[in-house]
Design a protein that fits this description.
Layout lengths: L2 E2 L2 H21 L5 E7 L3 H17 L2 E7 L5 H12 L6 E4 L9 H7 L11 H8 L8 H12 L8 E5 L6 H10 L3 E5 L6 H6 L3 E4 L17 E4 L3 E3 L3 E3 L4 H4 L5 E2 L6 H22 L1
Parallel strand pairs: 1-11, 2-3, 2-4, 5-6, 5-7, 7-8, 8-11
Antiparallel strand pairs: 9-10
The structure holds NADPH dihydro-nicotinamide-adenine-dinucleotide phosphate.
């Protein structure tokens, strides 16, 4: 039976350390500050933004929300980002995605100063991650790496199979695993023989967005399984991309959904904001 990787507990421990480090900065008159920009009324985005604000408050990080109506023009949004880029109290800027269709998402992300890009989505930061010299690492993949580290997984020489190639999870986590000397395979919707690919993995990272599509009998005995997927089935129930119950038979350790990767993502946002504020303190 697999060990359960308790993302909540790992995140709670990290958040305690972040709160302690934040206090040290506050004592030096530097309060880490995060600006969160939300355009429109998307209910899921609202929930995420309020979770982020609560987490900031608990850690002692100052956060300010800019709530803009869905009809906000791209020019107005870019103007706000410009102001935040030069606001001394702000160490991190997060634009909640998705943006309404009339706004060019790439243009907005590129307008954020790379030094305040705590989501790690600016092409400069993506490039720095690629070359192995990251400034800010994107939060979900960074959280996955912290989890693996905290349970003592050494990726050197391991076969890591990632299912999903998105810019926010699949591709960056592949680069991070590569930097830790894993041999990495990235699978996607056109991959042939997915079960065989997964069956060869020492570590499986699933970031697909399809409920329980990765079957338990695909998992190699003793593998580590990280399930990023969050899928709502029925009215309330959340499940991952992996058939959790069946995968527990083969895996050595596995993340649950919820309570696995989810809590790590916001934690790494706090972490990146703190790192940015530390850089301000050193200037
Ligand atoms: P995307 O929709 O951007 O990417 C999904 C990926 O899965 C694509 O690369 C796609 O392939 C691949 N895919 C789709 N169907 C199949 C299939 N049948 N076989 C193999 N690969 C397939 O998703 P995200 O990366 O944004 O998110 C993935 C999941 O993770 C979602 O459930 C999301 O909610 C969750 N998530 C959770 C977070 C957390 O903090 N817990 C944070 C971010 C995401 P192709 O490229 O060919 O289309």
């Amino acid at each position: 039976m697999a060990d359960i990787i308790d993302g909540k507990a790992i995140a709670a421990e990290l958040r305690q350390q972040i709160a302690a480090d934040t206090q040290v900065l506050i004592d030096q008159n530097i309060t880490p500050g995060l600006a969160v920009v939300l355009v429109g009324e998307d209910p899921a985005s609202r929930v995420y933004v309020s979770m982020k604000e609560k987490a900031c408050a608990t850690a002692g990080i100052y956060s300010v929300e800019h709530k803009l109506p869905s009809e906000t023009s791209e020019a107005i949004l870019l103007e706000l980002i410009d102001q935040l880029n030069s606001d001394e109290k702000i160490d991190g800027i997060l634009v909640q995605l998705p943006l309404p269709g009339h706004i060019d998402e790439a243009k907005v992300l590129e307008a954020i100063s790379p030094g305040k890009d705590v989501d790690g989505f600016h092409p400069y930061n993506v490039g720095r991650l690629l070359t192995g010299n990251p400034v800010f690492q994107p939060c979900t993949p960074f959280g996955i790496m912290k989890m693996l580290e905290s349970i003592g997984v050494d990726l050197q020489g391991k076969d890591v199979v990632i299912v999903g190639r998105s810019n926010i999870v699949g591709k960056p986590v592949a680069l991070m695993c590569l930097a830790e000397h894993a041999t990495v395979t990235i699978c996607h919707s056109r991959t042939v023989n997915l079960p065989q690919k997964v069956a060869a993995a020492d570590v499986v990272i699933a970031a697909v967005g399809r409920p329980e599509m990765i079957k338990g009998d695909w998992i190699k005995k003793g593998a580590i399984v990280i399930d990023v997927g969050v899928n709502r089935v029925g009215d309330k129930k959340l499940v991952g991309d992996v058939d959790f119950v069946a995968a527990c038979e083969n895996a050595a350790a596995i993340t649950p959904v919820p309570g696995g990767v989810g809590p790590m993502t916001i934690t790494m946002l706090l972490y990146n904001t703190l790192v940015s504020a530390k850089r301000r303190a050193e200037r």
